Amino acid sequence: MRAALALAARGLGRTWPNPAVGCVIVRDNRPIGQGWTQPGGRPHAETEALAMAGAATAGATAYVTLEPCSHHGKTPPCAEALIAGKVARVVTACGDPDERVSGRGLAMLRDAGIQVTEGVLATEAERLNAGFLKRVRAGLPLVTLKLATTLDGKIATHTGESQWITGPQARRHGHYMRATHDAIMVGRGTAEADNPSLTCRLPGLEDRSPVRVVLDSQERLPQTLEIFTDGAASTWHLTSRNLRQDPASRIDPRTALAYLAKQGITRVLVEGGGQLASSLLRADLVDRIAWFRAPCVIGADGLPGIADLSVSRIADMRRFARIEMRQLGDDVLETYERL
Fold it and tell me: Where are the alpha helices (DSSP H) in 34-103?
């Protein structure tokens, strides 16, 4: 199952609105087929693994990171494909909450006489596909807030200078994160001040740039910005008008995220600025924080990575649990999940 999860991770950022799934087929204690969900969501992982294994699947065990689908869509059900392949056993990590599946895939396998084992590395599988699961269950994408700051939480000096606070290894990892998300979001201030391209520029992963989303309530952004002119990736310009909100107020972040989910987006990486980070935290919409910390200090007159949250009581603080910490050159990346 760990091998299947590693395969599934290859699809992150490329399979939306479908989940990123991995499958490994084993017979006589050796793998005979493997696959992961392909770009655009198909072919599915099971189909890829079955095709690799060929006729050798009879009596084999299939390890799949998500419950095999049971409905006819643009591809036939994977549960039917596993049955046709005459596998003897299917091991799954977590169920699929999609109402078209939700237990039906496993029931189909059992009805065909296939032994089914559930819940193997379920926590790891649910974390990997948290975006897909949240979109199905709550109608919202998974939101990861990415911050690259000094030790005292600043993203720029008082003059606005910000390049570069973190070092090259941290920046490369930030580009890798872009490749694993469906969309990258910034506010109007960041788009206008920095004119970023918001693309993945790692060698070999240039085609993995996510959809670029910019929030601009009053449609003030110049159309000459890089995100509108470079053609390197799709750009979605969300305004009060196309979100059907009052143009006199800021865009409601929940409405914006719900809109993205309806378009199929499952994973959003938020890269700035401080006002957008604050609005998402205020609304309790941040699921994860990826905090890059550089070993330097700017001071109180620097620009904060998170704007005012108006927290007056300790009990009202947003709380997160650290799940990972890694060294990236001189910088440290800490990853947190919402409690």
Answer: 45-53, 78-84
